[in-house]
Amino acid sequence: METPVLPSLLSVTAHPDDESLLTGGVLAQHHAAGARTAVVTATWAPDSRRAPELAAALSVLGAGSPRLLGYNDARNPEAAPGQPRFVDAPLDEAVGRLVTHIRDFRPDIVVTHDAVGQLTGHPDHVRTHQITLLAVEAAGLAHLHPEAGAPWQPSAVYAATHPESGVGLLRPLLEGVGKTVLAVPDSYVTTSVDVSPWAAAKMEAILAHRSEVARERSLPGLLARLPEAERDEIISTEYFTRLAPGPAPGDPHQLIA
User: What distance in Å separates the CA atoms of residue 114 and residue 93, rounded to the nearest whole number?
Assistant: First the structure.
């Protein structure tokens, strides 16, 4: 019996390395099963120093070529000199750029950051969550952003997240370098995925972001310096919250209570 192909997957994240840290396991899993996968990155320019690192990571994960929206990082002006920060970009413009990629790739599932901004609450993470939800809805409506291609409605959106019970070794690791840890209640999580079969590929993709590995306080750098057993414990489970897009079935004659 043939193994069923998993749904196509588009990961939308804020910075180069977020895709590997948050969704590297499921990207590798879906690619191994024959599904189409891709990544959209909100910040950093195509000619920036981190773009080749992103390309190397995506090659490891089987997620195609970088798709960069080209905005500036909220905290690093060298990401895209001369471009607006992602958090300052006009809302409709940013949504339209992402709609173009959604309609071009036509994913079954879109994965992005959670509402609290992924552990550290980085403003680019929060903005990516907001823009992605708007873009997924807009992508299915023909009258919105008609220049971006034919409408396409993904079947589901998942927010990558970290529940209180699943933070584990990440908490002392991040707090040890002065970072906050914004975990969510366990009840917020709808899906947890054991990605241990793809942990080696995920870690290889993380290490491809060499400039981040070289930094003492970055998560790639912290993971790179951990013993293998501790590192694998951290990266071998990925947590998600399903956020269904589009109108839900219901009684058209029932008024909102």
Answer: 22
